[in-house]
Amino acid sequence: MSGYGKWLGGSLGWLVGGPIGGILGFVAGNVLGDEPEAEVASHSSKVTELESCLMVLASHVIQADGKVSLKEIDAVRSFLINTSGEKNIESKMSVMNHCLHHQYELEKACGYIRIYQNETVAHQSLRLMFDIALCDYELSEKEHKILLRISGLLNINDVAFKKLVQQWAIVIQDDYTLLGVTKNATQAEIRNAYRKLVLKLHPDRNSQYTDAEKKSAERKLQALRESYKRLVKD
């Protein structure tokens, strides 16, 4: 998600200090449940309108498949840190948690981005939602449906949406191909394939490697580890 800082950095800062949910109908007295009003105001003043809208979108994506994944929440956290730094991150994640427990209107959040932000921000907002949905390297039918809905609400055409789907399909396929398994492979089959490849390539088991071959094997092993982490659930 490192690329988000370039397109979103300016947008995140322009409303800092404003009420968290003017466009979304949030009210300061109930943004964070039972917390004292001063505490609520302290949290809400550290989250911009754009951030709050993105959190609403993210909450719909995260809950689309009927469960809340820690990987998806961590993806939101990483995005916020990458775009605006670690300062106030706990306040922002408190708001994210709040959004996960309340069904705020997707239409209003998308409408704000569509009307008050430029086309680039709309497209990158959708890309962020793809990143969140696919951080476990699976796209369920329900996740696909909510992403398609967000795309429509942001006035993003079908061509751009299908391009994102295709890009992710290629990345996912590459991981499976690298491990030598099909997309229908079970978790046990992926683990087994990974272990066999590690044993086959590991320099400690190949004393005949030249220095160049050893470095090549280490690069391949690193790629295997990254693919394995993406494909195997915790």
The residue-averaged pLDDT reads: 80
DSSP E strands, number:
0
Major sheet attributes: none
**Total number of helices:** 11
**Oligomerization state of this entry?**
single chain
H and E order: HHHHHHHHHHH
> Beta-strand level of the residues, as a percent range?
under 5%
Binned, the helix content reads 55-70%
What does this structure look like?
The protein has 2 domains: 144 residues, no CATH class; 55 residues, Orthogonal Bundle (Helix Hairpins), CATH 1.10.287. The relative contact order is 0.10. The longest helix has 22 residues. Helix 3 crosses helix 6 and helix 3 runs antiparallel to helix 8. The chain contains 11 helices and no strands. The radius of gyration is 21 Å and the shape is elongated. With 234 residues, it is an all-alpha fold.
Descriptive labels:
mainly alpha, elongated, Helix Hairpins, 234 residues, 67% helix, 2 domains
Précis, in short:
The protein is mainly α and 234 residues long. Helices cover 67% and strands 0% of the residues.
